[in-house]
């Protein structure tokens, strides 16, 4: 125990707080349980409130995740469009080398421009080639398309390297993980090495048990509190009493204090229409939030819970952050890096994440049932999508109200 405490204190001292420190993965459709590619972004940012927007100011329509205070939707952080093309990024901190270009932090602008105009992975590569330089970026851009294309582009101001996730020599188990360094960048620089190893371990286990699929990822990746370096995991504390406080350092876990959302984009098989592309959006702190499936509609309809006008926050984000504050009750300086595990899960089954799981499972079950019907008919039913959104809004609000007596007045 003494050795573990020393390790935790040491990690707290040496850890660098990169606020934009996401964990991401691309999974080839050749290896997923249902043959559809997957793009996953577990987002860390200094802006805790996120929401979804419908975009129509380009060649293609799209749905994307933005910061709540981005009233004009200038920057998007993950999204998909009507061609079935999807894009995300993780910030990289080891690509620039000696480059001292002052233009920075243009990743969200670049991704929005790509989302509005690109239909395929190949088109995105051409987009990168033609994009004005210096690009003002240092990132791992991840993209998939409706033809099965799947690739990362490790990109800086002037150069990029493509990593093809469909190449078995590059991705022998069908997936590629990226955190906050690039494999083509400077060695031992950047950040996210512990999170990379944690995610790599999780996806390796999933690939070996044929569990590269959305429900498994929501339970085991989006809600992960494992640390590959210390060996800790939430399962270590499930036998603790609900009244017993048990704080652990979680800044090097996939879920950390700065986590603001966890979004999975499930692509389509090559013989399916792009309209079947599905975004599973967990808006807010994933350990206290719920997955909301969304699709592109002609009217740009979205569930009320995940959208908001102007600089307003989404309702789901606000609800999740109220419960996050119960898990992380002190946010004075470094204390915000310690989370109380018994508020997440405990022996009595009264932890916040435990209580939300049946609600989450029902949303996933209902959505997959609808998707199965639509895929069989080979057509998305716009009316049924809107009815599903209404059910989702009502069901989630009831869940937070019944379980935690929480309501957000809008």
Features:
410 residues, alpha+beta, Penicillin V Acylase, Chain A, seven-stranded antiparallel beta sheet, six-stranded antiparallel beta sheet, 8 helices, disordered N terminus
**Can you tell me the CATH topology?**
Penicillin V Acylase, Chain A
Rg, alpha carbons: 20 Å
Main beta sheet strand tally, sense and closure? 7 strands, antiparallel
Give the amount of beta strand, in percent.
15-25%
Shape: globular
Uncertain regions spanning at least 5 consecutive residues:
1-16
Number of helices: 8
Helix content: 25-40%
Q: What's the rounded overall pLDDT mean?
A: 95
Q: Can you list the strand order of the major beta sheet?
A: 3-4-5-6-7-8-9
Structural class by helix and strand composition: alpha+beta
Gap between N and C termini: 47 Å
Q: How many extended strands?
A: 15
**What's the order of the H and E elements?**
HEEEEEEHHEEEEHHEEEEHEHH
Task: Write out the CATH superfamily name.
Answer: Penicillin V Acylase, Chain A
Query: Any guess at the CATH architecture?
Result: 4-Layer Sandwich
- Would you state the CATH class? Alpha Beta
In the residues, how many domains can be counted? Answer: 1
Describe the structure.
By secondary structure, the protein is an alpha+beta fold. The protein has a single domain, classed as 4-Layer Sandwich (Penicillin V Acylase, Chain A). 29% of the residues lie in helices and 19% in strands. The protein is built from eight helices and 15 strands. The protein has a seven-stranded antiparallel sheet with strand order 3-4-5-6-7-8-9, with helices on one face. The protein has a six-stranded antiparallel sheet with strand order 10-1-2-12-13-14. 49% of the residues are buried. The model is unreliable at 1-16 (pLDDT under 50).
């Amino acid at each position: 125990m003494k050795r573990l405490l020393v390790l935790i204190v040491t990690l707290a001292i040496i850890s660098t707080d990169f606020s934009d420190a996401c964990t991401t993965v691309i999974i080839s459709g050749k290896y997923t349980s249902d043959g559809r590619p997957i793009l996953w972004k577990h987002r860390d940012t200094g802006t805790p409130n996120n929401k979804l927007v419908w975009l129509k100011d380009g060649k293609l329509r799209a749905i994307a995740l933005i910061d709540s205070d981005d009233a004009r939707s200038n920057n998007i952080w993950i999204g998909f469009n009507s061609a079935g093309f999807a894009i995300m990024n993780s910030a990289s901190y080891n690509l620039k080398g000696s480059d001292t270009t002052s233009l920075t932090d243009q990743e969200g602008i670049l991704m929005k421009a790509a989302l509005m105009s690109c239909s395929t992975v190949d088109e995105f590569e051409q987009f990168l080639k033609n994009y004005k330089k210096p690009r003002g970026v240092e990132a791992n851009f991840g993209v998939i398309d409706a033809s099965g294309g799947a690739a990362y582009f490790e990109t800086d101001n002037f150069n990029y390297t493509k990593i093809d996730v469909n190449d078995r020599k590059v991705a022998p188990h069908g997936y590629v993980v990226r955190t906050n360094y690039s494999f083509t960048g400077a060695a031992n620089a950047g950040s996210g090495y512990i999170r990379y190893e944690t995610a790599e371990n999780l996806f390796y286990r999933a690939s070996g048990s044929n569990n590269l699929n959305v429900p498994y990822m929501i339970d085991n990746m989006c809600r992960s509190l494992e640390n590959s370096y210390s060996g800790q995991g939430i399962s270590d504390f499930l036998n603790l009493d609900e009244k017993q406080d048990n704080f652990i350092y979680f800044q090097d876990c996939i879920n950390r204090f700065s986590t603001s959302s966890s979004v999975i984009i499930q692509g389509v098989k090559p013989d399916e229409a792009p309209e079947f592309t599905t975004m599973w959006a967990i808006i807010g702190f994933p350990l206290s939030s719920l997955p909301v499936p969304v699709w592109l509609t002609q009217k740009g309809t979205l569930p009320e819970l995940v959208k908001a006008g102007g600089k307003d926050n989404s309702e789901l984000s606000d609800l999740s952050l109220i419960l996050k504050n119960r898990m992380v009750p002190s946010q004075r300086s470094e204390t915000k890096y310690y989370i109380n595990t018994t508020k997440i899960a405990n022996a009595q089954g009264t932890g916040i994440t435990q209580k939300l799981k049946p609600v989450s499972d029902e949303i996933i079950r209902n959505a997959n049932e609808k998707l199965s019907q639509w895929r069989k008919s080979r057509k998305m039913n716009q009316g049924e999508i809107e009815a599903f959104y209404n059910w989702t809004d009502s069901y989630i609000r009831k869940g937070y109200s019944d379980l935690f007596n929480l309501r957000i007045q809008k």
